[in-house]
Amino acid sequence: xxxxxxxxxxxxxxxxxxxxxxxxxxxxxxxxxxxxxxxxxxxxxxxxxxxxxxxxxxxxxxxxxxxxxxxxxxxxxxxxxxxxxxxxxxxxxxxxxxxxxxxxxxxxxxxxxxxxxxxxxxxx
Length: 124
Description:
This protein is mainly α. It has helices at about 20-40, 50-70, 75-95, 105-115, and strands spanning about 1-5, 10. A two-stranded antiparallel ribbon has the order 1-2. Helix 1 runs antiparallel to helix 2, helix 2 packs antiparallel against helix 3 and helix 3 runs antiparallel to helix 4. The two termini are about 25 Å apart.
């Protein structure tokens, strides 16, 4: 991006990223964790579950990817959707008797995303 100075010359101006680096790191880690979860679901890591649970779980992770894309683009709907996906994921796990307390850490991550909520833009 170029800006004219007071003498009329064009200067190159570095654009600062709107997204904080720590937020980017957490988003990348969440995406990698989601990929690992999908891969592990179809590797028969979880014995004794029926075929519906891996499909529903993968769908929840895909919705999580959508919410992380909203957080990555600094949209206000991103953290709200992420918290709803974590809640739905816990409900699905409880229904299929696959509840893991590790997924409660998702609310910590959602709380971290909500720290940047005021800096995010609203989509009309």
